[in-house]
Each structure stands twice: as C-alpha cells, then as structure tokens.
Design a protein that fits this description.
Layout: H1 2-5, E1 6-10, H2 15-27, E2 32-35, E3 48-53, E4 56-59, E5 68-74, H3 77-86, E6 93-97, H4 102-112, E7 118-122, H5 128-133, E8 141-146, H6 149-160, E9 168-190, E10 199-205, E11 208-213, E12 228-233, E13 237-239, E14 245-247, E15 256-260, E16 266-287, E17 294-298, E18 304-307, E19 310-313, E20 322-327, E21 332-333, E22 336-337
Parallel strand pairs: 1-2, 1-8, 2-3, 5-6, 6-7, 7-8
Antiparallel strand pairs: 3-4, 4-5, 9-12, 9-16, 9-20, 10-11, 10-13, 11-20, 13-14, 15-16, 16-17, 18-19, 21-22
C-alpha cells in the first residue's frame, strides 16, 4: 500500500505542530513516522517509527530490525555508484536527490535488482508519486517533509489519485448467463462522482475480476446515481486501490477502492457507504485459459458490464458477449497477494 511505504517527517519548528501533524496523519491512515529524538510520542500498534538526528535515520521501534543509515546527498552518477557499492543489498540506503531524481532512482533499483533497502527523502509531497512508481517498484520507503497540515493534505490527495496496481485488461467470452435466485447484493456508494465508463473490479475468484460500471447513466425509470456501483453479491471480491482485495460484504466507509475503465484510466476513491439488500441475482460465467471465472450480479437494467461496444446490462446479457475484466495473481491471504498454489471455483 502506498501509505505504508510513505513515512511522514513532521518538520514544524514547534513540538506542538509536529504532534498535530502526527495525529492528523494517523487519522488519514499513515503509519510510519520519522521524528527528532525527543518526539517519540505515544506509539500505536502497527506503526513504524524512526529517529532522524544529525542527518542519520535510525529505527526506533523494537518490532523492527535495528539499522542506522546516514542520508546521502546524491548530485551525480559517481556518488550514487559509490553509495550503492558501499551499502550492498539489503542494507538501507537513504538518498536525498540533488537535481535529477527519477532516472537515478530507476538506476539504483536496477543495480540492486529490486527496491529493497532503497529509501528516498524529499521536501516536496509532489515528488512522492514518482518515487513510489519508478521502474514499477519505486523506493521501498519514501520519507517526506511535512511542515504543516496543508502539506499533509496535498500528500494525501496525491496518494489518493495514484493507484498502486498495474491492470492487465482482457476480453473474455461469456459462456453462461442464468438466474441464480435471491441473494444479498452490495451497492457501493463512493464519495466521488464517477464517469459512465468507470467502475469497480468484482468477481467470485481473485484470479479474474469483471468490470462492473457505475450507475452514471439513467434508465427510463431511474435517475442516474453517478457515485454508485451496484457491485455484486456479498461473497464477491472487489479490488482496492492498493492492489489487495476485500469481500464486498466487508467494505466499510472510508476505505479506498480502485475505480477504473478498460481504456486504462484508474484512480482511488473512498467508500461513502454500502447497502446490502436481497435482490434477484444472475450468474455470469466466462471461459478463460481452461478456467471458468464467475460473478454474481443483480439482474437489472442499471447493472452493467463493460463490453467491446460499451456497457451492457445484466438484463440483456447473453452467451457469446465479450466482456472486460482484469487478470490478477489468484493466491491471496487476508486480501494480500502471496505466492501459493491455489484453485478457486
């Protein structure tokens, strides 16, 4: 998750200002902090704390492996090369770029064969998305100076607008559409206005999720609800903005979900509320590489899947239609991707 890889460094001159920044950052979901030695405020479970003193960052919580890493100011390729040679993987290297910042970071990731131990420290929230995404991996951790609450709000907006998962879109052929009786379906009402082509990725198996579009287009009998996706049955997976999955029935207000469209646009939006109601469901099945991924959706004119020619409602969906979805690694533990042999049917 992006927030887990970002460490907030409150840089206000006053201790009260730094404490307020930490309290507000907690409320926004940040869990890593870099502070002066005297600012080890009451730590919360699952938080990571680090101390910055005399241009050196040290671990400050007992749950983390101890390390001590000086901040290296990189101005040229020679400085970067010598720093990496003196601090081989997995040693932590903390870099503050002087000038170019993206190509050098990509070079560092390539030289190490991954992002392990590569930290970047920056004064600008605007630098964070690039540092998180360089060469697909990004830095293992980005430390960002946050002098005030306005800077914290800018940082949050920048991370909200940048999903952290790459989407592998596919067109699959529907092999079965049939009534599935009554079931509990979930409406996901977001805090954002969605475009007609935007929607959520939902499915019965984590290895393939179907693209269910928003209710931004009205029917003859209903008004548009551009903030809403009628997402599917309660057991279904939904993709979150950090690349993990959640059961639709477990979504809660404030969680960031991934909203996307098959043309490639994707963004993070927050759940405003969910509504679970008993409704008639339809089973949609497709064929994909010898497997048959499914999704259970409400049978209604306002519930639509993305197809080659636009959105098609479940009330008119038939065998042979080609619909969009996204392939993902199927093995998950608590919603997070893991390496494991698994089969879901």
């Amino acid at each position: 998750m992006s927030l887990e890889r970002v460490a907030v460094h409150p840089s206000s001159e006053s201790a009260d200002g730094r404490l307020e920044t930490i309290l507000q950052a907690r409320r926004r979901g940040f869990r890593s902090f870099v502070v002066p030695p005297g600012d080890l405020f009451q730590q919360q479970p699952a938080e990571r704390w680090f101390v910055l003193e005399n241009e050196v960052i040290c671990s400050a919580d007992r749950s983390s492996p101890p390390f001590r890493a000086p901040i290296v100011h990189v101005r040229d390729p020679e400085t970067l090369d010598s720093t990496l040679k003196q601090n081989p993987r997995p040693n932590v290297v903390v870099v503050r770029w002087e000038g170019e910042r993206l190509i050098p970071l990509e070079n560092a990731i390539a030289a190490r064969g991954g992002n392990e131990g590569i930290w970047v420290i920056t004064q600008r929230p605007e630098d964070v998305p690039g540092a998180l995404g360089a060469l697909e991996y990004g830095a293992e951790r980005v430390v960002v100076d946050v002098p005030d609450l306005d800077a914290l709000a800018r940082l949050e907006r920048l991370l909200e607008s940048r999903p952290t998962v790459a989407l592998a879109w596919e067109l699959v052929t529907v092999s079965r559409v049939e009534s599935a009786g009554m079931g509990d379906r979930i409406l996901v009402d977001t805090t954002s206005i969605l475009r007609p082509e935007e929607g959520l990725l939902v499915g019965s198996s984590a290895g393939f999720l179907y693209h269910v579009v928003s209710e931004a287009i009205a029917s003859r009998y209903t008004r548009p609800r551009p903030f809403r996706v009628n997402a599917g049955s309660a057991h279904s997976y939904v993709l979150l903005a950090d690349g993990s999955t959640r059961y639709l029935s477990e979504l809660s207000p404030g969680e960031p979900v991934l909203v996307c469209d098959p043309k490639g646009a994707a963004r993070s939006v927050r759940v405003g509320r969910i509504k679970m109601e008993r409704r008639p469901l339809v089973l949609v099945e497709s064929e994909r590489h010898g497997r048959r991924p499914t999704v259970f959706l409400q049978e209604a004119e306002t519930v639509r899947l993305s197809t080659e020619s636009g959105a098609l409602s479940t009330a008119h969906l038939t065998k042979g239609a080609r619909v969009y979805g996204v392939a993902l690694p199927p093995a998950r533990h608590m919603g997070m991707e893991i390496e494991e042999s698994i089969e879901e049917r």
